[in-house]
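sry for the spam today, last one i promise. struct tokens for design, 90 residues
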């Protein structure tokens, strides 16, 4: 599966939530509401989730392998940084 498009839908300058992303795979499957979050030591990508009956959050979609997670996260963060540099004042 190949990432064919990444759209940075929203950049949020304040708080831990830094951006909202949509990713398209193989020009056929889209995942919306992926979050870029500021963690304690770095930015990371959080997959779309919802609260279950116990109040815990569960991912709706997620990569199965660590390799897939690293590839998707790397491409999303690269797109986020590019978009951030385009809106930053010169």
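last one done:
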């Amino acid at each position: 599966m190949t990432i064919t498009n990444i759209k940075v839908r929203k950049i949020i300058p304040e708080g831990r939530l830094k951006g909202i992303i949509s990713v398209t795979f193989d020009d056929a499957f889209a995942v919306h509401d992926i979050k870029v979050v500021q963690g304690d030591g770095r930015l990371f990508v959080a997959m779309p989730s919802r609260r279950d009956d116990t109040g815990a959050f569960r991912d709706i979609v997620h990569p199965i392998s660590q390799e897939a997670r690293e590839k998707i996260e790397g491409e999303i963060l690269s797109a986020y940084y590019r978009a951030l540099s385009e809106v930053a004042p010169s």
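The longest strand covers residues 29-38. ok im logging off now
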